[in-house]
Design goal:
alpha+beta, 4-stranded antiparallel beta sheet, 3 helices, Actin, 7-stranded antiparallel beta sheet, signal
């Protein structure tokens, strides 16, 4: 009889050791302070997103999900158009299925421009030059990208060479503002100083967005490309 009782106890203990845990951990979630929500709302308003889209994006990130604009798996799902800001800047705006956006621009408002050997007048707007021949040097141009939760920019000095290879002289003073979290591992380099026959000159700002409470992270690269007579920017997530 004692052997039967001992065997029953052993069997029960084995069952308990392999039985699935009934207390499943909940999906990570984030709570925001009223100051956080005000900051998020102000930024999304600046991006021109509707109240419905704003609320949807806030709920999405609270549930531990990335907006499409910041999700590497959603690359190529957005629709890009060119808009003009109230102060005349040309902005590339990509809108994703969940309503989130990426806005890209090269702001020359505070840039100094030096020209040489220009035969005909060139029109420069938002980092683009056309017509004429010679070169144009831009000092203190602002390379800026914004997503629904991330702001990033840096300054650059570059020269557009008409009929030759353009180049980037310097990239400096990076600024990153994470609306819902913080940045880590920030790095700004001119990794391709001069245009070649096969690739543009390039400067790269790299950083990682770590969401509030560290529930996920996403790595970004903000590129400045200088090629022939134009400059452009692009933000990629990884």
């Amino acid at each position: 009889m004692k052997k039967v009782v001992a065997s029953a106890i052993l069997s029960a203990s084995l069952l308990l050791s392999v039985a699935p845990v009934s207390f499943a951990s909940e999906a990570p979630s984030v709570t925001f302070s009223s100051q956080d929500l005000d900051k998020i709302s102000d930024h999304l308003n600046d991006l021109g997103l509707s109240k419905e889209v704003q609320q949807s994006l806030i709920e999405k990130i609270k549930a531990g999900e990335l907006p499409d604009s910041d999700n590497p798996e959603k690359k190529g799902t957005g629709i890009t158009s060119e808009i003009e800001s109230s102060d005349g800047l040309k902005i590339q705006r990509t809108t994703f299925p969940d309503g989130s956006v990426i806005q890209s621009t090269i702001d020359l408002t505070n840039a100094k421009i030096k020209e040489g050997n220009v035969i005909t007048p060139n029109d420069v707007s938002g980092g683009y030059a056309s017509g004429g021949s010679g070169y144009r040097t831009f000092t203190n141009a602002t390379v800026r990208e914004e997503t629904s939760y991330v702001k990033a920019r840096f300054f650059a000095d570059y020269t557009l060479v008409q009929g030759g290879y353009s180049y980037i002289s310097d990239a400096y003073d990076p600024y990153i503002d994470i609306i819902a979290g913080y940045s880590s591992g920030d790095s700004l380099v001119v990794d391709q100083p001069k245009q070649t026959a096969s690739r543009p000159a390039r400067a790269t700002l790299t950083f990682t967005w770590v969401k509030i409470n560290g529930y996920f992270s996403s790595t970004y690269k903000l590129f400045l490309y200088v090629n022939n007579s134009s400059a452009s920017s692009q933000l990629q997530t990884y």
